[in-house]
Amino acid sequence: MGAIIPFGLISTIWPVAVWLMLATVLFVLALAVADYRFLIDAFNAIRFKRTLPNSAGRGASCNVGLELINIIQRRLSGSLRDLPPEGVTPETWQYDILLEPNGAIQENYSCIIPERGVHHWGLTHLRLKGFLGFLEGQMALGEPQSVKVYPESAVPDGEYQVFTQIEYDLKKSSSTRRRGEGMDFETIDRFVEGDDPRHIDWFSTARSGEFMVRRYQQDQHREVVILLDCGRLMGAQTSAGNKLDRAVDAALLLFRIAGHRGDSCSFGVYDNQVRSFLLPQRGIGAYKRVLENVYDVECSFIESDFSVMFSKLQQKQRKRSLVVIISDVVDSNTSGRMKRALAELKKQHMVVFAAMRTPALSNYANQVVDSTRGVMRQAVAMQLEQEREKALHQISKLGVTVLDTEPEGLTVPLLNQYIRIREQGLL
């Protein structure tokens, strides 16, 4: 209403002003329509392509390529905005563009994906300015795409992660053959000092007139069972990801090394139920199947129950095997069913229990406190650590090999333990 009164006064004094103002409005409207038509033609003339890798590593760079092609005889300017999945760094990517007539631009950016699983990219948004500058328009380009994010240990075939702390040469140990105790008969040979008299072959001795003994070589084709706990205790955060992330890395690398040495491997995932269980298999194809089965496993945040996995093992794993369990315990009371299952499991199999500590618990127990609340929190943390140590001690008394490590330090002792068991012919 405030604008109508001055307009009425001006039109009374100078009637021509009404037509001038109306002409101005129509002129601006015509320019806006021209800009609008230009933007419609411009968006129809844009060709867009986004290039994503099929897979990427957790915490590694994921390179994204964007390509724009302009097929009209007009210069286009504006901005291009891509929105990576939630949790990815950087959260958004935007670039100011200037497309020459019949020109093209290619832009690339890198992002870090901190979690395993399938991550989805939505549409890319292009914003253009009209050639007269009256209007701007925005359009969604491309199609939704996805990238599989694998654990760090999922390296290409033929490559292996190097750990300088490993006490054994992983590439040479598989070719080592040791005479003596083993499972596979190798040959009959003359008895020499140091041979086990129990291995004397009396039939061959009678024929040759001298003592002959049976010699054995290590069985080069054993069975390894890797069991991965994905219950609530595995959801504790570490310096990079949670405990389950570290467990998946170590388990996959162990599976790969064991398969490289000709061992058959089973792989199971459980919480309060069996999430998945792959029967014994070996070879490159086996590793790929396990990788696809486990790369996107998530922590369920419910209490795990190992007895359900133990029941599955009783049904599926008859042959004596090396059973590696990657999990954790809280105290001796809550781990009661696990201890009973491990005791039964130890009667038939070689069992290694890899327990992953909770970093936050250790930090609270060892920090310097200066308040009543801090003292109480430290006391609770120290009590929980003592209960955990007690539970692990009770498990070790069953004859189970216990590895108590920080999540970041699990891989090296786990691989060393596997190689040690294999070298010593304990299966």
Automatic annotation (TrEMBL):
Bilayer-crossing regions: 16-40
Statement: the UniProt record of this protein carries the keyword Manganese: no
Organism the protein comes from: Pseudodesulfovibrio sediminis
InterPro entries: DUF58, vWFA_dom_sf
Any Pfam family: DUF58
Name by which UniProt lists this protein: Membrane protein
This protein's record includes keyword Transmembrane helix: yes
DUF58 domain ranges (all copies): 191-353
Keywords per UniProt: Membrane, Transmembrane, Transmembrane helix
